[in-house]
Model the fold of this input.
Amino acid sequence: MKKYLLATLLGAALILPVAAQAEGSYLKLGVGESKYDRGIAEKNELATSLAFGFAFDKSVGVELGYINFGTLKELGDLSSTSIQREAFYLAGVGYLPMTNSLSFFGKVGLAVNRSEENFSAFLVQGGESTTKTKPMAGVGVSYSVTKKIAGVAEYQYFGKTYDIKTSALTFGLTYGF
Done:
């Protein structure tokens, strides 16, 4: 999982200087709470996100991003399970400006969801790693503090994989180039 993050950060470091020259591009960092929902039980973990986007105009854009949902740990009497999820996504973004500073947005796209599950029971240990491509959707609000910096709150839903729905509510900052 660390290889994917390293590859993403390296790619961003190489692309960012070129992309920063484009009017309407932005970098978004977010931190918040992820939700692992199994239907009968829900658990919350720390979520972190990083995205690069480009707004074609005030109403339409595109965003490429990464989100880490944290590690879900469950302990039983004689067993333990840990699940770590992350996703890379590409989404179309629609903006609804309310004022010069405040705008709402929605996004729809595809996410490559990666899940790593490790378990142990008695003396038996095992693990499984899966990757699934699923639709994703999100809604949020953005408030511009300056011409280049905005505060962002957003909810993103990444679908259901192996009976667990994954979503995140994050708060962060956007820096426009």
Q: What stands out?
A: The mean pLDDT is 85. The longest helix spans residues 2-19.
